[in-house]
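Hey team,

Filing this mostly as a record. A colleague (T.K.) asked me to run one chain through the structure pipeline before their review meeting, and I want the input and output archived in the tracker in case anyone asks later how it was produced. No errors, nothing strange. Just documentation.

Input sequence:
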Amino acid sequence: MSVNSSGPAPTAISEVTEPLGDLGSQSGEVIEDVVGELVTAGLSADRASVVARLVVTRIHQQSGPLPSVSDFAGYEQVCPGAARDILDMAIRQQQHNHAMERAELAWEAGLKLIGMAVALLSFAGMIYGAVEAAQLGHDHVAIAILTGAGMLGVGGLFLRQWLRPPVELQAGAPEANPKGRPSKRK
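Output structure:
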């Protein structure tokens, strides 16, 4: 079972050695493939055929948070109700993961809103300070405050762009701007 659905799902690989009669319709193809590999490895054709017919190994690969259907049936046979419990556990885990993602998104949105409010209040305070300085006859101070406010705004934009994490492209997607230059709008 996967505890965290954001990462890759675990993969269970089990090797089952079965007699020839228990394999499905693909057993002939499997045996031919095994015989070909054994002959290539240096075993005589007769001996390779005997070895391949005695035992054929089947590899079953399961990927995902839930066990395979046959494993579910096995859990149910050993402990009645266990399959339902496993399914309920997976459903609760998925609901928990969704709730955590929603809470994280709400937190990030709240932080952005607080940041915008602080920036707006700071800018309004600088404008108020510049107006008050101009009314008191300190024109140079008023100009310095307004110039500082503009420089902080532009500097903040540059800093925000510089600190932004790079966007990763999906596999196979064309690169938007291969030379790293800003795109020109027409």
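Quick notes for T.K.: Residues 104 and 110 are 10 Å apart (CA to CA). The longest strand covers residues 11-18.
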